[in-house]
Design brief:
6-stranded mixed beta sheet, alpha/beta
C-alpha cells in the first residue's frame, strides 16, 4: 500500500496521460462550458479535441457518470448539477466517490472544475479519497512479507469557473491552506483506521506529542491513577480496566494579543467493547473508530494553528479503552465526575458521555474556555436522526447552531440540528441514588439529544459558556474540517 502525498495547484501543468494519469471531474454544467484548449495540456497527444467533445456529449450523470478518454489513464467524470439545500453545492460526497473509483493508484493528476466558492469543499473531498493505513502482505520469492510502502504523489489542480462577479482568482495562501488541511485529513483518517493494537492510548498520546512538537507546544497529560486523584472520575472509570490506562491530554495554543478562549474536546475511545454491557459480535467490529472525535480535533488543531489562528485555542483529548476485566465498571456502580456530580452507571456502553463530561468541565474550569465544542462518535441513534452523511449538532446557542450548519455547507462536512430541550428530555436520566444515570430510560425519546444533554448537564444548563455538541457516529469516516470553519467564523 502506497503512502499518498496530496498537493494542490491553481494552474494546470503539462503532463502526458501515458506517464501521469489524469481525471477531469466537475459538475456537468461546468464541464459543458469547458473548452478543449483549457485542458489540452493534460491530454495531448493522446486525446484530440473531437474525442474530448464526444465524451462531453455522452455524459449523463444520475447522479454521476464517467467516460474514458484514453485507455484507463485519462477519464472524464461528471456530477449532477442538482443538489438540495441541505447539501453543499460542491457535492463533496459524490466527488470523493468518483475520485476513489477512478484513481490510478500511482502518481496522477486530478483536475477539478468548479466555482471558487466550492474550491475548499472540493479540495477536502479529494483529499478524503486517499488513505494510508494498510497491513496487507505479499509473497516475495516464496516468503510472506509486509508490502514496502512507496510514496505516491497526487496533484490536484483547479479550473475555476468565474462566478457572477467574474471572480476566479486563487491566492497562494488558499492553496497552502488546502495542503495543510489535506495533511490533517490524512492524519485523522490514518488514526481512525488504525486498530487498537497499533493505536492504544499510549500510541494516541504519541500522536499528540508529535503534533505538539511540530507546533512547538508541550502537551499537558494526566493519566492513570492521577486522573482518579484529580477527580476525573468519568475518564478514569471508563478506562481503568484496560491494560493501558486512560488519559486526558491537552494541547494549548495561546498567541499574543488573543482576546477569546476556545476549547475543542474530543472523545478518544481507542476501542469500545461496550464494557460489561458488552457489544454483540456484529456490533463490536469497527469500534476502533470510536476515537474519531479526538482524531478529528487533533488534525484540525494542527491545521488551524499552522494557519496562524488569532485566538487562544485548547484541544482536549479524553482517551480510554473501554475494556472488560477484573477492574471493569459495573452496572450499578456510582462514579463522581469532575463536575462533582454523581452518576449511577446503568449501561457501561454509554461511556463516551462520561469522558466528554470530564473534558468539557476541565475546559471550562481549568482552561477558562468560554466557547466549548465537543465532538464524538457518541450515539448509534445519530445515524437514525440525521443519517450517515450529516453530523448531528446541538447547542445552547442558536447563533452557534446556525454557524455549525453554515460551516458544514462550506467545508462539505454536512451537519443538521437536533433538539435542544433539557426541560423535556433530561428527566430520562433520573436516578433514585445519584444525581443522574448515564443512559436514558426510554431509548425512543430523542436519545441522541439526551446523550448531548448529559454532557451539558455537567457544565450546567445555566452556564455562561457557549457549548456546541457534534455527534459524528454516522459520518465519522468523513468529518474533520467543519470545526476549523466554525472557529474561523
Amino acid at each position: 500500500m502506497a503512502s499518498t502525498t496530496v498537493k494542490f495547484s491553481a494552474t494546470l501543468s503539462k503532463t502526458d496521460p501515458i506517464s501521469v494519469p489524469v481525471l477531469i471531474v466537475g459538475q456537468e454544467k461546468h464541464l459543458s462550458s469547458l473548452s478543449y484548449s483549457a485542458v489540452k495540456c493534460k491530454l495531448e497527444p493522446r486525446v484530440n479535441e473531437q474525442t474530448f467533445k464526444s465524451a462531453l456529449s455522452v455524459l449523463n450523470p444520475c447522479p454521476t457518470d464517467t467516460c474514458p478518454l484514453f485507455l484507463n489513464t485519462a477519464t472524464l467524470a461528471a456530477i449532477s448539477n442538482n443538489h438540495s439545500r441541505h447539501n453543499s453545492s460542491a457535492q463533496p460526497h459524490m466527488l470523493t466517490k468518483l475520485i476513489n473509483l477512478n484513481s490510478a493508484g500511482y502518481n496522477e493528476c486530478i483536475v477539478i472544475v468548479c466555482e471558487r466558492k466550492d474550491m475548499f469543499a472540493s479540495g477536502c473531498a479529494a483529499a478524503r479519497a486517499f488513505y494510508d493505513y494498510c497491513r496487507k502482505t505479499k509473497i516475495y520469492v516464496g516468503k510472506l512479507k509486509e508490502q514496502k510502502k512507496a510514496t505516491v504523489t497526487v496533484t490536484i489542480e483547479f479550473i475555476i469557473i468565474p462566478d457572477s462577479n467574474g471572480d476566479h482568482k486563487v491566492e497562494k495562501e488558499e492553496i497552502a491552506t488546502l495542503e495543510r488541511i489535506a495533511n490533517a485529513i490524512k492524519m485523522t483518517a490514518r488514526i481512525v483506521d488504525t486498530p487498537c493494537n497499533d493505536m492504544n492510548v499510549n500510541h494516541f498520546l504519541d500522536e499528540i506529542r508529535h503534533v505538539g512538537a511540530d507546533l512547538n507546544i508541550n502537551p499537558t497529560i494526566i493519566s492513570g491513577e492521577e486522573l482518579k486523584k484529580k477527580g476525573l472520575g468519568g475518564i478514569y472509570g471508563v478506562g481503568k480496566a484496560s491494560s493501558v490506562g486512560p488519559a486526558l491530554a491537552v494541547l494549548s495554543y495561546t498567541p499574543h494579543g488573543a482576546t477569546e478562549t476556545i476549547a475543542w474536546v474530543g472523545k478518544g475511545i481507542v476501542y469500545d467493547t461496550g464494557g460489561l454491557s458488552i457489544k454483540g459480535k456484529s456490533a463490536m467490529p469497527g469500534m476502533k473508530r470510536d476515537c474519531a472525535g479526538a482524531a478529528a480535533i487533533l488534525g484540525a488543531f494542527q491545521a488551524i494553528v499552522k494557519s496562524s489562528f488569532k485566538q487562544n485555542l485548547h484541544a482536549v483529548f479524553c482517551l480510554a479503552e473501554n475494556s472488560v476485566g477484573p477492574n471493569s465498571t459495573r452496572p450499578d456502580d456510582i462514579h463522581t465526575l469532575y463536575s462533582g456530580r454523581t452518576v449511577e452507571i446503568n449501561n457501561t456502553d454509554a461511556e463516551g458521555r462520561l469522558v466528554l463530561s470530564d473534558g468539557v468541565v476541565y475546559a471550562s474550569r481549568d482552561l477558562n474556555a468560554k466557547v466549548i465544542l465537543d465532538m464524538a462518535t457518541l450515539t448509534g441513534a445519530q445515524a437514525i436522526s440525521t443519517g450517515k452523511y450529516h453530523a448531528a449538532v446541538m447547542s445552547n446557542s442558536e447563533l452557534w447552531e446556525k454557524n455549525v450548519v453554515s460551516a458544514g455547507l462550506i467545508s462539505g462536512d454536512l451537519t443538521f440540528p437536533i433538539v435542544y430541550c433539557p426541560e423535556l428530555h433530561f428527566c430520562e436520566f433520573s436516578s433514585s441514588v445519584a444525581d443522574m444515570k448515564n443512559s436514558v430510560a426510554d431509548r425512543s425519546n430523542a436519545s441522541s439529544s439526551c446523550a448531548g444533554l448529559f454532557i451539558a448537564a455537567h457544565l450546567g444548563f445555566d452556564t455562561t459558556n457557549q457549548w456546541i455538541h457534534v455527534d459524528i457516529a454516522g459520518p465519522s469516516h468523513y468529518v474533520i474540517m467543519i470545526i476549523v470553519i466554525i472557529t474561523f467564523k
